[in-house]
TrEMBL record:
One of its GO terms (cellular component) is cytosol. One of its GO terms (molecular function) is arginine binding. It is found in: Cytoplasm, Cytosol. Residues 11-78, 201-262 form the CASTOR ACT domain. The lineage of its organism: Eukaryota, Metazoa, Chordata, Craniata, Vertebrata. This is Cytosolic arginine sensor for mTORC1 subunit 1. Forms homodimers and heterodimers with CASTOR2. Interacts with the GATOR2 complex which is composed of MIOS, SEC13, SEH1L, WDR24 and WDR59; the interaction is negatively regulated by arginine. Interacts with TM4SF5; the interaction is positively regulated by leucine and is negatively regulated by arginine. It comes from Corythaixoides concolor. Belongs to the GATS family.
């Protein structure tokens, strides 16, 4: 329904959304949440089969977006570990490998992944939700933050910047559930009694991946970040965009995260 515009770029692929639902058999000692929860079982296998993914972590759960043309590879890769269902007429219907055999690709020889630079601004972030029926009460502030408060960075085309802070605001509305990621200063503009967060109320720090627009064709970017964090049992929200990827980790763990990712960089050289 959006009118054509020279200012809007649309990727040529159609994407499908995967959501991973726990069946309760996770090890009792596994405390990590977010992308690290599915790093070994979903993210890494898809990267090995050259499936490019976009990650969208929300307050409620995590979603993996894959290109529609990669669906046969996705099904064959994950069928051994998961029961897979698709929605048909509002019902969940089991999917088998036989349903999507057409176009299945065998794994290719692994190419050396590109090691993208990682930056960690000093900004502190909150991961929040709001009840849908209270959304009108914050609509004016929300519109101002989304469209009017921030001008685009002038350095966007100059590569890596030395960032002390970063402007980042993510709003998602999925099946009626609202999720918001904002910096702690922006949070002060909203009515505090309407924004809900976890019982700990913890703050998050960000690592931003990429020195130039990442696009959608490269595989393994999420895996490179998620796997070392999963090995260290560190929770992480992960939000992919066209230009950069963003991982949010608990504030008290940022030093360990930076060290782990620096080791990854040095080990890949």
């Amino acid at each position: 329904e959006l009118p054509p515009s020279e200012f809007m770029q649309v990727a040529d692929s159609t994407w499908l959304v995967l959501s991973v639902v726990s069946n309760g058999r996770a090890p009792a000692g596994c405390q990590a949440t977010g992308v690290t929860k599915i790093a070994r079982s979903v993210i890494a296998p898809l990267a090995e089969h050259h499936v490019s993914v976009l990650m969208l972590s929300t307050y409620q759960t995590d979603f993996i977006l894959v290109r529609e043309r990669d669906l046969p590879v996705v099904i064959h890769t994950l069928a051994g570990e998961f029961d897979i269902y698709k929605e048909e007429g509002g019902e969940c219907v089991p999917v088998t490998c036989d349903d999507v055999t057409n176009g299945f690709l065998k794994p290719k020889a692994a190419a050396s992944p590109t090691l993208h630079p990682v930056q960690s601004p000093q900004t502190r972030f909150c991961v929040l939700t709001v009840a849908p029926d209270t959304l009108p009460a914050i609509a004016t502030v929300l519109i101002d933050v989304l469209f009017y408060s921030h001008s685009p960075p002038r350095e966007a085309d100059t590569g890596i910047q030395d960032l002390d802070s970063i402007t980042f605001f993510a709003f998602s509305l999925i099946e009626g559930y609202i999720s918001i990621v904002m910096d702690a200063e922006t949070q002060k503009r909203f009515p505090s009694d309407l924004l809900l967060t976890s019982s700990t109320g913890e703050l998050w720090r960000m690592v931003r991946i990429g020195g130039q627009p990442l696009g959608f064709d490269e595989c393994g970017i999420v895996a490179q970040i998620a796997e070392p964090l999963a090995a260290a049992d560190i929770s992480a929200y992960y939000i992919s965009t066209f230009n950069f990827d963003h991982a949010l980790v608990p504030e008290d763990g940022i030093a360990e995260v930076i060290q782990l990712l620096q080791q990854r960089q040095e080990g890949g050289r």
